[in-house]
Amino acid sequence: MFKKNALFPPLLKRFSIIVAAIFFAGIVIVYIFIGSSLFLIKDIEILNSDLIDEGSFSQLKNKNIFLARMDVLRDRVNEIPEIKNVVVKKELPDKLIVEVNEYIPRALLKENMKLAVSQEGTIFSFRGDENESYPLLVYEKLNGKENLPLGQTFIGFERAIKTYLSIKDIVSVKIIKVKTETEVFFLLENAKTEIRMNSEEHAKESYYLSVLMEVLPYKNVEYIDFRFGEDIVVKPY
Fold first, then answer.
1. Predicted pLDDT at 233
2. Looking at the structure, do residues 126 and 79 belong to the same domain, yes or no?
3. Quick one: pLDDT at residue 19?
4. CB count in 10 Å sphere of residue 38
5. Rg of the chain over CA atoms, in angstroms?
6. Mean pLDDT in residue range 196-206
7. What would the pLDDT profile of 80-121 be if each residue is shown by its tens digit?
8. What is the CATH number for 196?
């Protein structure tokens, strides 16, 4: 008969060997991924933007790709009002790919047409095609301001732009007048007709507008007001 205690030394020895092998393998793996120069960042590729370049992130060069602090990228991007966000992809063993998403201009500020407003309601420097036509956005509270808050988002602008996008294929808009956070007026290209809408109900009101435009000679209309629920007010000249 074998005694149970007689089995312990061989089992303990085998267990110790396995633990030692795992520990050694762990050291090798850590060295390969952390200590080796194989995974040091050598190349940074910037996509979709000329606002930043590889040199903007020189701090990340020769840093381990697994340990590099991506907040360096975020801090750099947050300084640029024209950039909405970035997506950083690691391409092993030594490359970072930075995909930049810039804000898309949807309207220009009437107070300063070098500034644009995005769909998110953010103000940023206009870098688009000057030959492309954009509606002008008017907001009385910005009148007389010399230094407009670049990179700042206004909820009233966001709602106004989303409302504009819901009707831009129905009517041609020249000026977007932001009255309040929920009220927005649109002056059409004929410079005679005004569309008054509640931006919180823009989906429903844009549908009503599309139906109305099929039967209404709107060039003879001073304004169409959708702000009274189910009642639509049409005032002719």
1. 94
2. no
3. 75
4. 12
5. 30
6. 94
7. 899 998 888 999 999 999 899 999 999 999 878 889 999 999
8. 3.40.50.11690
